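Here is one chain, start to finish.
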Amino acid sequence: MSSSPLTPAPRSHVPTGALSARGRRGRLLTLGVGAACCAVLLSACSSGGSGDGKGGGSTAAGPARAEISVNLKGERAAAGKPVTVRLAEGELDGVKVTAAKGAALTGKVSADGRSWTSERPAAPGTAYRVRATAKDGGTASAAFTTVAAEKVNKLTLAPGKGTTVGIGQPLSITFDHPVKDKAAVERALKVTTSNDTVGSWGWIEHYDGKDRIDWRPKEYWRPGTTVRLRADLNGVDSGPAGGFFVRDYDTSFTIGAAQVVKVDLNTKQLRLEVDGKVVRSLPMSAGTPGGKKRSWGGTTVLMAKEGTIRMNSETVGLGNAYDKMVDYSMRLTWSGMYAHAAPWNAAYFGNANRSSGCLGLSTENAAWLYGKVRPGDPFEVSGEGHKGAPAPGNGYGEWNLSWAEWQQRSALR
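Its structure:
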């Protein structure tokens, strides 16, 4: 559509509250979101908005109008796209995009002052009002509502908010549904630390097959580091099979002491080191070499202290080898490797590896270790007879990848 500015009425005919002489000059204001457009005429001095994106106003002597076009209009506008406002003549002073519920969309005016783009996409199922102001004082507004999401993607965060964890704990996000547009999701995830820790996101497959993304520092965390995640995901489309995210997430946690548990399969000893110094060495018995009962090697991370739990060998593919209640259980992998009390194996502690894959200790020593370690503490397993390093998604196995290998797992590399 083309138009030309209207000639304003003489000043004596303009009612109180109308624009200044400069502000009454006709302007061409183009407001758009995406590619498609729908022309709308709004009053430059007292424009209004409606659900269909149309509005207008007039003075006693006739309207002083600005022409705008809006592609998001009505009550079934598409979600997941940034809002863009373009001005055909002159310069924008600012744009406000407010939501009936939820946060407003912030954005930036371009260097030439001719356009404004929101930093985030329009969220699904949300009513928005757009108000643009030109530097000469003219304004225009519009309204639209986006279609509600047909499918909603949710996530699980680890570690928990406000917790203190060990130096090996990654920031981990597991998604309920598949994430096809991994780059769009990763761009919405902002990690900040109290000491500018170097780290990277990496996409992996969770043990249950779900999509997962972890943020791992280049090296173990420094004790005392505060970590914050802002996941500005509301309005991000994860793909046809995953659907939209409809909320944001904000969490933080703190890194505790520099504790590492080192397990030597050759000497059958487990030792706790704090700040690089050995606190105590404990005789233990690891997984039986040569078959399915071998322990995992490499680096695992303490996932949880689960206390007394029932362990059934049938749940980990070992037939009916055992079914018993086990004390001081410390989970290391999703596949069932633990450190725990194993008094029935007392004859092997420090002498032979004869467990079904776990790191067995005396009840006294297991209780001591249980009281010292915290989730996030690395367990570094070395020596002969293990079955290799666990996959990154089998617990927190990403420490078995080099820094270069881990960085390659980012969708933004």
